[in-house]
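Q: What structure does this chain adopt?
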Amino acid sequence: MRVYADSSFLVSCYLVDSNTSRAKAFLLKHQAPLPFTSLHDLEVRNALRLGVFRQLLTEQQAREASNTIDGDLRSGRLVRTVVKWPAVFRLASRLSAEHSATTGTRSLDILHVATARAVRCAQFASFDARQQTLAAAAGLTSAL
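A:
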């Protein structure tokens, strides 16, 4: 079963935060590669830069995390995944119309769920309860 990990899950894999132990435990059990889209690339690397701005990380720590991501892409742990963005945005708009008023999901959360569906993942890995609720409504099961 293909698992889609949202950006916050991936950040927890590359930095130490309150969810890192759960993320690492999941990765030890789940050996299949994770899709890595251009949305992940932007969001995860921006999170590293934002960590530097907020003085939560040094530039060296951010660079090391980014290098680890690059290594995981080279090794196949993460797989660059091409996405048909017009289809994702159509599905995201539908999910927003059907669920945002009751789930409180944000645009990027919705885009991740729509992307997971578009790349035919069956499971969704996220520590965000609202996003997990939306993922379930969209037919994805929780990977955690």
